């Protein structure tokens, strides 16, 4: 079991461009295993490779996220995901993110989403859903495009998030932003 370190906001690695996976190699299979281990160790609904500092277009979701999923449902793996369609109106719901520990904000998103990707066997799969699944698909896909939940809220909430993250970094001396990462006041 490999639990990887999470890249925390405002680390600029969260904004880097990701790239498509060509062949599904042993390295990609190991990345997926590590993402799954990390996701479960942190009791998260999903995680994208960029959140552990990897630039491959990969994310995973807990198998309990889709309606009807339970503790025995395998995690869902998305390689080179494309957000194909969204719709069915908008919904506001609270979101959290491993890259923003302790931060939960209301985010408005389409109620439903469909993602097309490859699975670990290289087969094309389409997954669609509303509720938590639709939200999770959009949230993790956003990570692969450099979009973060702070980008989806108004100015006042952005400032609140920035202050919370500044406090979080101050309280976690061993997990300061990486060298070369702008401090929060520089991002304001």
Automatic annotation (TrEMBL):
The keyword Nucleotide-binding does not apply. InterPro entries: Peptide_deformylase, Peptide_deformylase_sf. Its EC number is 3.5.1.88. It is an enzyme of class 3 (hydrolase). It catalyses: N-terminal N-formyl-L-methionyl-[peptide] + H2O = N-terminal L-methionyl-[peptide] + formate. Residues 167-188 are annotated as: Disordered. Keywords: Hydrolase, Iron, Metal-binding, Protein biosynthesis. Its cofactor is Fe(2+). Binds 1 Fe(2+) ion. The keyword Iron applies. Fe cation binds at residues 97, 139, 143. GO terms for molecular function: peptide deformylase activity. NCBIfam families: pept_deformyl, PRK00150.1-3. Removes the formyl group from the N-terminal Met of newly synthesized proteins. Requires at least a dipeptide for an efficient rate of reaction. N-terminal L-methionine is a prerequisite for activity but the enzyme has broad specificity at other positions. This is Peptide deformylase. It comes from Nannocystis bainbridge.
């Amino acid at each position: 079991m490999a639990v990887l370190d999470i890249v925390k906001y405002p680390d600029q690695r969260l904004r880097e461009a990701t790239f498509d996976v060509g062949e599904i190699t042993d390295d990609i299979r190991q990345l997926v295993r590590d993402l799954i281990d990390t996701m479960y160790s942190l009791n998260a609904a999903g995680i994208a490779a960029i959140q552990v500092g990897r630039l491959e277009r990969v994310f995973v979701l807990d198998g309990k996220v889709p309606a009807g999923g339970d503790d025995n449902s395998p995690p869902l793996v998305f390689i080179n995901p494309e957000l194909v369609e969204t719709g069915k109106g908008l919904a506001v719901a609270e979101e959290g993110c491993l890259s923003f520990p302790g931060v939960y904000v209301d985010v408005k998103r389409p109620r439903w989403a469909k993602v097309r990707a490859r699975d670990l066997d290289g087969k094309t799969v389409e997954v669609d859903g509303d509720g938590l699944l639709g939200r999770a698909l959009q949230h993790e896909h956003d990570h692969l495009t450099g979009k973060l939940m702070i980008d989806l809220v108004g100015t006042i909430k952005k400032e609140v998030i920035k202050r919370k993250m500044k406090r979080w970094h101050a309280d976690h001396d061993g997990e300061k932003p990486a060298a070369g990462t702008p401090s929060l006041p520089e991002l304001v």
